[in-house]
Design brief:
The complex is a heterodimer of chains A (1229) and B (293). Chain A has 1229 residues and is α+β, with helices and mostly antiparallel strands. Chain A is built from 30 helices and 62 strands. In chain A, α15 (775-784) runs antiparallel to α16 and α24 (998-1014) runs parallel beside α26. Chain B has a domain at 192-281: Alpha Horseshoe (Serine Threonine Protein Phosphatase 5, Tetratricopeptide repeat), CATH 1.25.40. In chain B, 72% of the residues lie in helices and 0% in strands. Classes of the chains: A alpha+beta (1229), B mainly alpha (293). Chain B: It is found in: Cytoplasmic vesicle, COPI-coated vesicle membrane; Golgi apparatus membrane. Chain B: One of its GO terms (cellular component) is COPI vesicle coat. Chain B: One of its GO terms (biological process) is endoplasmic reticulum to Golgi vesicle-mediated transport.
């Protein structure tokens, strides 16, 4: 399984580590009954409070002096008690984190302390040989029990009755009756004499021998001191552990108690022991560093776990959930004893699950009802090992259950038709396997980790296929139709069962569970701390990390993943956005989400319904899908506010939507600026009225061309210069002169001058210059602008004449630019995109056409500038587009209701026609019936000219592409087109099925060919190999790798056909004349040239050798023999015996030939020359001599054969120009 | 009340007819029906006989009858008997005169479509008022014209008012088999349900199941289904034809089955189509020749 140490054992019961602390020796442990807390008292005097779920130390309590041995939580109050070697018993409050008080009285080490489950009592045991009961409410000692004559190591209350059990180093276990004590302290209504007597003599035997606590039984059986003792929670049983290394089981009745049995196994002192709260198991720990689990009924060891270094001192059980803690020399370990995750499977509205009693039950989501038990799996696996997984097959109403017992077994069981109670299954099939899941209606896959195989089995449990998963595979899951997912520690592999091929591998660490979405398009891969969402083709969509352990997940119908961690239900959208849906107070396993209900199984395998508020994730989903209507709905109907959603919207770039949620003006302003909503921004700025905001608004408004807002912001900020310039640029003369007046009022001459320039107001300028005594400038200005009189007047004022002045070159009158468009009248038109459809919906603007740019000034002014025209044009388009949308909806509705008028009718092209369109491969054209284009393709690709041998293949493909579905009687059947990929429905990607794929060719045809070769049926062989060539010529493959494979097969077929033709030709030759004998010998030599499988080459060599030898061509025979021996190799295709025999005869021949290595008949066969064989003439083509080859098979020919039909393929023209055969298109469009 | 609806007394005979259990239809005791249902029942029985290849008997039986329903049956019988010209003629006449009659719509629609007058057939069928048979026929015609889109619309519309009807389910499966993908599986479920129940099993449903399996790429299952069906109905044309297709796909010999089909159903689509393609092949292949022969 996993390499991590948290799976401590292999088989049977799993001890799963939950938490481990490091500290000094732990002597006492106590679980909090509700919270995930554990108290650990240490030998070092410290008491630690841990959160074992989060793995954090919450608190430390250090008031004891010396080791603290006893520790216990109160079951309801925020209290705990401790007892130590300082003789003290301390009661603490974990809320105030203080010791409330100390109970003094013991005269030696306090060993254990326990609260009573209902009375305000504390029970303590001590080395002073006493057991004492204290009332923690009035902080007094109420009873002292004496009797043990050595240290009392442990004393515990009975969980229900008025009994105490104690263990002592005096080798005895004692059971005490404390009903008297209870009677005395349970507020008597009237005082009897007896009562008064007992009251008067506390903790002493009265005159009749009655005391508050009397020894009921003394259990003797341990040979050494007894360290621990506990009651069974429900049965009258006691278990004790002692220094005699034994764990003893005792039974008691009302009148007596006796030893039942002994569990032997610890090889050092047994320190502590207890009963499993729910199961028939005993747990014990000892100084031999082991935790041992025993079967209560058989008293046999079930399991043991050993630590390397640390002796165990104490063990405690959680009162409710399946958790245990053991204290040892260097800390505490908290562990689970069995798998809590109930095995379950969902089909439509039914959940099938296995209860703790190992009953199969179903739960109906629609009716919210639980079925009675359907089946009992009591006999599956070991008694205390719950089944691990459940897989359900709706077609057969069968289940597959796996159990980790005996390193994994599975059972296939048919569910009874109706649930009649927990019946034992009949007619079940079983086998070995780590995991077993249904992969199809009548197939299931069984994974065997030890043998690293996956077997595909049918419902009769016989294997139909064996797959080899990647090494290190730990588990398998359903991988979508026809596929499996292999889980390895570092990756997940998608595997196609049909073609036995790995489709995709995704590296994800430590995946433990795979949860498919309801539509099967997505899967969530859960590992301990990560969720990875993938598509059905194993493309990663998103991944997220959780610091807390992830327990389970399920998909909402809308494609939202809900997952549970130890303490939360969370959601994740496909894009990885996630958040908390609700908190959990106990771990649950989610199985289904429906509306506001989350269905889950709790740790005790009971179905539970949790209510959730799906608003947040639905909203986010709607946002992602841009489903504004739904968003609107959500906003209207629920109180979806809060910083998180605003931050989320803002982060995702939906400021305009976030705006709808915000009240705070500052935030609103920010958002409004962000999304360019100036109106809102202006409102907010007015509300806040801060210069900084105005300035930002101004900048933003300027960018929008919204000069009215800009004007306002400038006014607010008193930016007169900017205002003036704004008026200038917008052509607002009136306001500009007002600005001049303002400047005059303010006495700001620079500003006045500026305004005067902007306005082209020369008089004002001159006036101003005069006012500031800049007469030269005033004069110059007057002069320049041709105001001679004014100039004169200025001269006069200054008392100067013209000739006294030296004027610079005077320029032309400054012409201020005049705006053509009265821009100031309205804002720069902005495309009305500011309102998202969402906002519109929100504001109730249902009709989209309304907002044709009425307000943008240009339209009603009839201005003819190009911009305006263009703008309004765009607006029109906008409006039109808006209407179009509306229209479309109507059209669709119409079509839905009204039968279509015949104008739309008429035949269309069939799917077969699409095939030819979708594919450039000849085979697909053939399937489409488009033989002409197919032949054209083949002619171009491989120079095919003689098609008649292909006729059968063509018709076969054509035949196989269509099925006949009987429909209305009296009419021909409906023709349907068989597709290559059954999932494909995109008409542009549809392709036909092509019979006899590469796999069949390799596994059937090629083998037949080899068989023909082996059995010397060469005529058949030639036919078979030619058929292979013909089949491959018109075919398709599914990957580049297969293209390569196909090429290899073509080459193989070519070589075999050539070889067989040579041999057949040789056999047809007469051998009576020397000419043909020579030829015959040559041919037999050529027979050895083609590249056959080694074993077949040996056959050829053997034949050639024998033939040469018989004709006394010893030299040739010798060379053949040598080649045979050199080939040696592995006898793959021949059986060992005959193979050895042939090698033997080769050796013999060799020896004989070596005596006289000469050829009697000279042949043209040159052993050492490089040559190929012409497939037509069957003569050699030596290297360098001219040759032509066949474009399809690649067979070589002498040049004179160019243009004739290839002898190998019978179809293609030798030496024809060709582009090469295409069998595969990487991505078909 | 619609006599074919789930409560109507004709529902069983009607279902049997459309599940392809023609002999069962003929064996129905028609006299048990109420008078107004006598005629539709008789029409169904006559149609069953025609399907089972006894058009001559039917013709003899309704000689001289002039109820439009029976005349419509007559055209169908004539058509089945090979007298296509007069069948077409009468059908056209009927279609004009009694276009409101449900039987006329369906039977004449069938004849018209079979004779290539698909548009006329559609025009006639479109006049139906909640006649599921007509609807199924419309769907089939659309499909044969490769107008899956229109067929889908018809079915979706029909599902609004006849959700659970067998015919709508079947029609939906026909469309599903064209659309493919997940629809194959739902079509398969429809046929499987019918075929696996002995009460509704027939060559039609079994062929449907097998074809769906085949399209789903589950060849071993398809093979099992077909061989089981062929054992029961060795002469059924569709079963043979689909087995031929399957055998080609699984690379098995088909000669025997082909000759079997040739013998029993010489005019089956598979054979005629293949013949045509074979000739086509020869014509095209003749255009190519090696430069040197």
């Amino acid at each position: 399984m996993q390499s991590s140490p948290n799976m401590l054992t292999k088989a049977c019961i799993l001890i799963t580590l939950v938490f481990e602390s490091k500290s000094s020796r732990a002597k006492g442990i106590a679980f909090h009954p509700k919270r995930p807390w554990i108290l650990v008292s240490l030998h070092s005097s410290t008491i630690q409070l841990w959160d074992y779920r989060m793995g954090t130390l919450i608190d430390r309590f250090e008031e004891h002096d010396g080791p603290v041995r006893g520790i216990n939580f109160h079951s309801t109050q925020p209290l705990f008690v401790s007892g130590g070697d300082d003789y003290k018993i301390k009661v603490w409050s974990y809320q105030t984190r203080r010791c409330l008080f100390t109970l003094n009285g013991h005269l030696d080490y306090v060993r254990t302390v326990f609260f009573h489950h209902e009375l305000p009592w504390i029970l303590s045991s001590s080395d002073d040989q006493t057991i004492r009961i204290w009332n923690w409410q009035n902080r007094s000692l109420i009873c002292t029990m004496t009797g043990h004559n050595h240290y009392v190591m442990c004393a515990q209350f009975h969980p229900k009755e008025d009994l105490i059990v104690s263990a002592s180093l005096d080798q005895s276990v004692r059971v005490w009756d404390i009903s008297g004590l209870r009677k005395k302290h349970s507020a008597p209504t009237s005082f009897t004499f007896e009562d008064q007597m007992t009251r008067a003599n506390p903790s002493q035997a009265d005159m009749f021998g009655n005391t508050d606590a009397v020894v009921k039984f003394v259990l003797e059986g341990h040979d050494r001191g007894v360290n621990w003792v506990s009651f069974h929670p429900t049965l009258p049983l006691i278990v004790s552990a002692g220094d005699d290394r034994l764990v003893k089981l005792w039974r008691m009745s009302d009148t007596k108690a006796w030893e039942v049995d002994t569990c032997r196994g610890h090889f050092q002192n047994a320190s502590a022991c207890l009963f499993h709260p729910h199961q028939d198991l005993i747990l014990s720990v000892g100084e031999d560093k082991t935790i041992r689990v025993w079967d209560l009924n058989k008293r046999t060891s079930v399991q043991s776990f050993k630590r390397d270094q640390d002796r165990f001192w104490v063990i405690a059980a959680h009162p409710e959930i399946n958790l245990f803690a053991a204290g040892h020399d260097s800390g505490v370990m908290v562990f689970k004893l069995e798998r809590e995750r109930p095995a379950s499977a969902i089909y439509q509205n039914q959940l099938f699950y296995i209860t703790k009693e190992k009953h199969v039950k179903s739960y109906d989501f629609t009716k919210d009802s639980e079925s009675p038990p359907i089946l009992s799996l009591r006999k599956l696996g070991a008694a205390w090992v719950p089944p691990r997984t459940l897989s359900y097959n709706p077609a057969e109403r069968a289940i597959l259950v796996t159990s980790p017992t005996d390193s994994g077994i599975y059972e296939l069981i048919n569910l009874p038709r109706d649930a009649t109670g927990a019946v034992e299954p009949t007619n079940m099939k079983r086998g070995q396997g780590t995991s077993a899941i249904f992969v199809a209606r009548n197939r299931f896959a069984v994974f065997n980790q030890s043998s690293e195989t996956v077997e595909i089995k049918d419902l009769s449990n016989s294997t139909t296929k064996t797959l080899k998963p990647p090494t290190g595979t730990t588990d398998i899951y359903f991988g979508g139709t026809g596929c499996l997912l292999f889980i390895t520690p570092t990756s997940v592999v998608l595997f196609d069962i049909q073609v036995k091929k790995q489709l995709k591998e995704l590296s994800v660490n430590g995946v433990k569970y795979v949860v498919w979405s309801n539509d099967g398009h997505y899967a969530a891969l859960l590992s301990k701390h990560n969720v990875t969402i993938v598509t059905k083709s194993l493309e990663q969509v998103s991944t997220l990390h959780e610091t807390i352990r992830i327990k389970s997940a399920t998909w909402d119908d809308a494609g939202v993943l809900l997952y549970s961690t130890l303490n939360h239900v969370k959601y994740s959208l496909l894009n990885g956005d996630n958040g908390i849906v609700r908190t959990l107070d106990q771990t649950v396993y989610l199985v289904r989400v429906k509306g506001r209900n989350v269905y889950c199984l709790d740790r005790s395998a009971k179905p539970k319904v949790l209510e959730i508020d799906p608003t947040e994730y639905r909203f986010k989903l709607a946002l992602v899908k841009r489903n504004y209507d739904e968003m609107l709905q959500i906003i209207k109907n629920s109180s979806l506010v809060g910083q998180s959603i605003i931050a989320y919207l803002q982060k995702k770039g939906y400021s305009e939507i976030a705006l709808q949620f915000v009240q705070d003006p500052q935030t609103r302003f920010e958002l409004a600026i962000e999304c360019g909503n100036l109106d809102v921004a202006t409102d907010m700025a007015k509300e806040l009225d801060r210069p900084k905001l105005w300035s930002r608004l101004g900048v933003e408004a300027l960018a929008h061309g919204n000069h009215q807002t800009v004007e306002m912001t400038y006014q607010k900020q008193r930016l007169f210069d900017k205002l003036s310039f704004l008026y200038l640029s917008t052509g607002d003369q009136e306001k500009l002169s007002r600005m001049a007046k303002i400047a005059e009022h303010r006495g700001d001459f620079t500003s006045r001058f500026q305004n005067a320039i902007y306005r082209g107001d020369v008089e004002d300028r001159i006036q101003m210059f005069k006012e500031v005594d800049l007469y030269p400038l005033a004069y110059l200005t007057a002069k320049t602008n041709g105001l001679a009189e004014e100039a004169e007047a200025i001269l006069k004022t200054c008392g100067l004449t013209e000739d006294q002045l030296k004027l610079p070159q005077v320029g032309e009158t400054l012409q201020t630019p005049r705006p053509i468009v009265p821009t100031f009248k309205s804002n720069w038109p902005v495309k009305a995109a500011g309102h998202s459809s969402f906002e519109k919906a929100l504001m109730g603007e249902v009709s989209i056409g309304d907002e044709a740019a009425g307000e943008n000034g240009y339209d009603h002014e009839g201005d003819e500038t190009g911009t305006a025209a263009r703008e309004s044009l765009e607006d029109e388009e906008e409006g039109a587009a808006g209407w179009d949308m509306g229209d479309e909806i109507n059209v669709e509705d119409d079509n839905g209701f009204v039968t279509v008028d015949s104008a739309e009718a008429g035949a269309a092209s069939s799917e077969a026609d699409l095939w030819a369109r979708n594919s450039p491969l000849a085979a697909d054209h053939v399937a489409a019936g488009s033989f002409d284009s197919a032949m054209q393709l083949l002619n171009r690709q491989v120079g095919a000219v003689n098609f008649s041998p292909l006729k059968e293949r063509f018709l076969d493909i054509y035949k196989a592409s269509k099925t006949y579905l009987p429909a209305t009687s009296g009419l021909p059947p409906l023709v349907n087109y068989v597709r290559r990929t059954t999932e494909e429905t995109d008409s542009r990607k549809l392709l036909p099925i092509i019979p006899r794929d590469l796999e069949t060719l390799v596994s059937v045809d090629l083998q037949e060919g080899y068989a023909a070769m082996r059995s010397n049926k060469l005529e058949d062989g030639v036919k078979i190999f030619k058929r292979i060539l013909h089949t491959l010529l018109v075919n398709t493959v599914s990957s580049e790798a297969e293209v390569e494979q196909a090429k290899k097969i073509i080459a193989t077929a070519r070589e075999y056909i050539l070889a067989m033709s040579i041999e057949l030709h040789r056999r047809s030759l007469p051998t009576d004349n020397p000419e043909s004998l020579k030829r015959s010998l040559e041919l037999s030599a050529y027979f050895t040239i083609p590249k056959l499988e080694v074993a077949h080459r040996q056959l050829a060599l053997m034949a050639a050798m024998k033939y040469s030898f018989a004709n006394k061509n010893f030299s040739s025979a010798l060379s053949f023999a040598n080649r045979m021996l050199a080939n040696g190799g592995s006898p793959k295709l021949l059986d060992q015996a005959s193979y050895n025999l042939s090698l033997l005869s080769a050796k013999k021949t060799k020896v004989q030939c070596e005596r006289s290595p000469q050829d009697k008949i000279d042949t043209e066969f040159d052993l050492f020359a490089e040559f190929e064989i012409c497939a037509a003439s069957l003569t050699p083509i030596y290297g360098g001599s001219p040759s032509v080859s066949d474009p399809y098979t690649g067979a070589k020919y002498h040049e004179e054969y160019k243009g004739s039909v290839c002898r190998i393929s019978d179809i293609t023209e030798i030496g024809a120009p060709a582009s090469g055969l295409r069998l595969f298109v990487s991505s078909v469009n | 009340m619609d006599p074919f609806s789930t409560e109507g007394e004709l529902v069983n005979i009607h279902s049997a007819f459309h599940q392809g259990q023609y002999q069962d239809v003929i064996d129905f005791d028609a006299s048990a029906f109420s008078p107004e249902n006598q005629l539709p029942a008789r029409v169904l029985q006559l149609r069953s006989k025609i399907v089972l290849g006894q058009p001559e008997e039917v013709l003899a039986e309704i000689e001289g009858e002039d109820t439009p329903d029976l005349v419509a049956v007559k055209t169908l019988a004539q058509h089945a008997a090979g007298d296509t010209a007069s069948a077409l003629h009468v059908a056209q006449e009927l279609a004009e005169k009694y276009s409101e009659n449900a039987t006329v719509q369906v039977l004449c629609g069938t004849v018209l479509h079979a004779e290539g007058q698909s548009e006329e057939a559609l025009a006639l069928l479109m006049k139906h008022q909640g006649n599921l048979e007509a609807l199924a026929l419309i769907v089939q015609i659309h499909l044969q014209q490769n107008r899956t889109d229109l067929a889908t619309k018809e079915v979706t519309a029909a599902k609004r008012w006849a959700q659970d009807s067998l015919l709508v389910n079947l029609a939906e499966s026909w469309v599903g088999m064209r659309i493919g993908g997940e629809k194959y599986q739902s079509a398969f479920y429809v046929y499987e349900e019918l075929a696996s129940n002995p009460a509704t099993s027939s060559p039609v449903t079994m062929a449907g199941q097998a074809v769906a399996e085949l399209h789903l790429g589950r060849l071993p299952e398809a093979e099992a289904a077909l061989s089981a069906a062929l054992q029961k109905y060795p002469d059924n044309a569709e079963l043979i034809a689909n087995t031929i297709v399957l055998n080609v796909l699984t690379a098995k010999d088909t000669t025997e089955l082909t000759s079997h089909l040739q013998k029993n159903h010489p005019s089956h689509l598979l054979l005629t189509d293949l013949e045509e393609k074979s000739a086509f092949f020869d014509t095209i292949a003749a255009k190519y020749a090696p430069k040197v022969s």
